[in-house]
Design a protein that fits this description.
heterodimer; A: mainly alpha; 85% helix; B: mainly alpha; 0% strand
Chain lengths: 184, 43
């Protein structure tokens, strides 16, 4: 019983920390606490709406796209084209950054190369086209253009460094971990 | 830029702590260099 409770506490520690923080704030400064609690609730709903859709999409991709196809377009053998495809996939995606991790996990499970996974992840966080359009409107085309080019160079460098510095053994452990998560 | 403190636990779940730390550290370095370069170019 104690083990089970400890397991639940470990699993939901961040949720419990935020809940405790909100409740403390609610007791000490009710107006601020209520505002904080309503904001937290808003983000929980937002996250649930995004994550549920991501998981449905992932389930469909898992069934419809075989491992061989994924490896053909994003695997280790496909260097430039695979990288470009992963970058574009990340650039044209919408939604928050945390939604990209389960997708990356699925990529890892399907045998996509680590460089392409990190290209996708970094493009998701930095080189989103919808965000760049909004950015150019607010900060100017020159700024957005320079930032986009420099960040793209940074993303390529980062993906290559991580790919080269991660050993096969580490990649295998990562693969096992992702398989464990998807089995849960 | 590509760094995420709030998303770190989730990232560590998928890619292990070591790889997540390495990615975030490299991202921070790239972000600093990019910011400095933008500052120099836009001056």
């Amino acid at each position: 019983m104690k083990k089970k409770i400890r397991k639940i506490f470990t699993k939901y520690k961040w949720f419990l920390v935020i809940l405790a923080g909100n409740l403390t704030l609610l007791l000490l400064r009710p107006s601020l606490g209520f505002y904080s609690l309503s904001l937290s609730w808003k983000y929980v709903l937002e996250m649930l709406s995004v994550v549920s859709l991501v998981f449905i999409m992932m389930g469909l991709m898992d069934v419809w796209i075989p491992k061989e196809t994924m490896m053909k377009y994003l695997g280790k053998g496909v260097k430039f084209k695979g990288g470009l495809f992963a970058f574009l996939l990340g650039s044209f995606s919408s939604g928050p950054f945390y939604a990209a991790f389960p997708i990356s996990g699925m990529f890892l499970e399907k045998g996509v190369s680590l460089a392409n996974i990190f290209l996708f992840l970094s493009a998701c966080s930095t080189a989103k086209i919808p965000m760049a359009l909004f950015e150019s409107d607010q900060l100017g085309i020159k700024f957005t253009g320079i930032r986009f080019v420099l960040n793209t160079m940074g993303i390529i460098f980062l993906a290559l460094v991580i790919d080269k510095t991660t050993s096969k053994q580490e990649q295998e452990i990562m693969h096992q971990k992702v398989c464990e998560i998807s089995e849960k | 830029m590509m760094m995420g403190v709030a998303t770190f636990p989730l990232e560590a779940d998928y890619f292990r702590k070591k790889t997540a730390l390495r990615r975030n550290a490299l991202s921070l370095a790239v972000a600093i260099i990019t910011s400095c370069l933008i500052g120099v170019i836009m001056r």
